[in-house]
Design a protein that fits this description.
Structural class of chain A: alpha+beta
Order of helices and strands of chain A: EHEHEEEEHEEEEEEEHE
Strand content of chain A: 25-35%
Oligomer: homotrimer
Strand order of the largest sheet of chain A: 8-9-13-12-11-10-14
Radius of gyration of chain A: 20 Å
Distance between the termini of chain A: 50 Å
Largest sheet of chain A: 7 strands, mixed, barrel
């Protein structure tokens, strides 16, 4: 049976997520619902995009990913369904699906009101537009029924790392995870790491290690995270607190 | 397959929710479990009732809603199973199901011990009474097997809005959601809103808008929320923090 | 269909849990995923073991419990699959499964790389080793295919209560739950409680009651919790805050 995953900033306390689940299960009985997260910080589209990039690629081909981080709900921002070779993404056209734009094979605006609940609340498109669209797709409805092609889906500005005059790469912290690990946008192939790379952050210079266990308990270390990017961590501790650093902080990578 | 939803104040860290899920899946293999929330503030029955009112109506007919917000567990308060034309609710008889009392077609006390786990812990009826009852209902057990009819289920006192001498309606904030939006008990038909209604709260007078996007970023606005009640919000901000207001605060609605 | 439960310290905001779910559903289509918790405090193996002990025994026979609280990921600590007569546990060999060690009928090291994803990230064995192993088991793969028997699985040091010269039992608070209830390691058979036992904690002497409802609202009380151990609670309040007590605090049980 088709899988629909859910990624939102609705939190887990209010009834919004439950309403969305109910709408989907009413239109697509037997679909498998999977929570990715409902704890995206309120209206933090970039955070939501990062979580999707970490989780969506591991799901079976054909999975539908419903995502709602939507500060512009009710405005002129479009809704969309974006299809790649391996998944379909449904949600607002505000950059939330930036990690997958390059792989798209189709992208439809959600203009066909026959695919929506009625009436559509101007403040809750998650329940009234995105959930029913995802459910209809799960039931086999073709993408073409949703609306016209979008050729210019919104993309988040991404600051790619750039080369400094001294030969280092300048990147930034793009995500702080629950453990206080600082995830950067600096890619490094873990297989090749032989302590020949260093990370500069908040006045510290850290050799890139293979794993958390290569650091002493309580010591700062840098390593290549599970997605292939440099992270700064404290073994059995919290690097974000230790360094007083958050998303957006500059990081430099020095390869010897 | 039958759906059982879960709404509790158990939080997500402890093992209580897992125990309930295990009991249900042991008695009703193949049932579809759906988390609505486990983050109702501890023992806040009114909050739980509000979440149920926001989510339950969207589920398929025949869904069973198990809800446990139960400060009186182990006391003389009854357990009940309340049936409407479209759903069955199982939990403590403490007002948690107030939003659905008017629609009930049957309401049974959970006195038949053959429908419970044994022994019943006096502190965990969620695991030992409500979960097995929900599972037995999902397996097709008739409501009549649970116990005798309850004719006087508990109801939360609801302060209905009242008309003031100046013609305004006086209501209150009944819920503060994750975004800091203030949900009131003042109903207004969104379709008819043409900036001819104003909300008075915490010294502010706010025209009722159609959607969040009608406000400037950072500005206070009032609108009709997805459930048909007036809400006060800040676009890309937090109205509860801005106004220093929480559940119970008075709100006035002025229609011109 | 086989059930796989998930118990982690990954939190609910990041994409880690979603990645694990995706890996499982890709390898074991149709498996039933059940979240027990993802809110174990970061790297708190003892807390994770307690949650598992509270929830796992209630699941149907044959359930697979995947648990990841893994401060030593990437180090020499082993991964394991531990089987009892009623369940299989998959995760790091760091004491997380201590409550079930006595009941094990088999325990395998996860050394067979054919059962893992490739490449294995040194920082995310949950996604690359434990999830695929759990999925393969759910698909009927025999335990013997995972790796050699482990005869010395890690166990958490447990401070058993000890008898004091004055005849009391000295135990400790092992868990503080969401309600601020203090769960101890002092067992007492609830059926036999007739107000003939007293608990001493933080300078208070409390008679053991049958249920929360036996205390006045706001008053401290002791009772036998749903797992058979003495708990200290405040009816409609928070005992941990009231007493300024947390996990590890000494508690004495006096039986008359």
């Amino acid at each position: 049976m088709t899988i629909i995953t859910l990624t939102t900033d609705f939190g887990s306390a209010d009834g919004y997520v439950g309403a969305i689940k109910g709408v989907i299960l009413s239109l697509a009985p037997g679909v498998t619902l999977v929570d990715i997260t409902h704890a995206v910080p309120p209206q933090d589209v970039r955070f939501g995009a990062h979580v999707l990039s970490m989780a969506a690629p591991y799901f079976p081909a054909g999975t539908i990913h419903l995502a709602v981080v939507d500060p512009g709900v009710g405005s002129a921002r479009r809704g969309l369904a974006l299809r790649t070779a391996w998944a379909t993404f449904v949600g607002p056209d505000n950059g939330l699906f930036t990690p997958f734009l390059d792989q798209r094979v189709a992208c439809k605006a959600l203009t066909n009101a026959a695919m929506h609940r009625r009436p559509v609340s101007p403040t809750f498109h998650g329940r009234d537009i995105f959930a029913p669209v995802a459910a209809h797709l799960a039931m086999g409805r073709p993408l073409a029924d949703l609306g016209p092609e979008i050729t210019d889906p919104s993309s988040l500005l991404a600051e790619a790392p750039r080369r400094l005059p001294n030969g280092r790469w300048l990147g930034e912290v793009i995500h702080v995870d629950r453990f206080g690990n600082l995830v950067t946008n600096l890619a490094l192939t873990g297989a090749n790491v032989k302590q020949t790379a260093y990370v500069h952050i908040a006045g510290e210079r850290l050799a890139v290690q293979r794993t958390y266990a290569d650091g002493a308990p309580g010591a700062l270390l840098a390593l290549v995270g599970s997605a292939g990017y440099v992270e700064i961590a404290v073994r059995e501790g919290n690097a974000a607190e230790r360094l007083g650093v958050r998303a957006g902080a500059p990081v430099e990578l020095e390869e010897l």
